[in-house]
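Per reviewer request, we include the raw input and output of the structure prediction for the construct analysed in the revised manuscript.
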Amino acid sequence: MTNNESKNLNPEHTPRLEWHQHAPEVFKAMLKLDAAARQGLDPVLLELVKIRSSQLNHCAYCLDMHTKDALAAGESVERIVQLSAWEESKHFYTPKEIAAIELAEAITVLTDGFVPDEVYERAAKEFDEAELSQLISAITVINAWNRFAVSTRMVPGHYTPGQYKH
């Protein structure tokens, strides 16, 4: 059901700007950067990180996209739902996933300070240097995507899993 199919739902907002149409080279570069950042990372872990960063950034468009991609990659609804309260629900996740989620939070909320040494060290214990470099890249990229989507008010609800994969 879309917003237009029910009189009980609020109407969809309109985007402020179709930025990808006006900056197509930036959009193409972001797609390439995103693809490069994904290399070597578990797709489910990657979606968990993208969902958590998008929750923190209040990015409805990216939440729509990455929850759908996570489900398509085999993630459970229960683990997606618990992600916003992962500290109370650690038993749903592996130590490696917790380290990635914790690092994603620290990088996403840099305005709160910096990435604490203990957070980085926990991630460094779970990921080798190449994986950790890819993970930091992926977290940085989702934060960039969130900023494009939030600032231009991209409309959630229309994404199809895998829509932007090369």
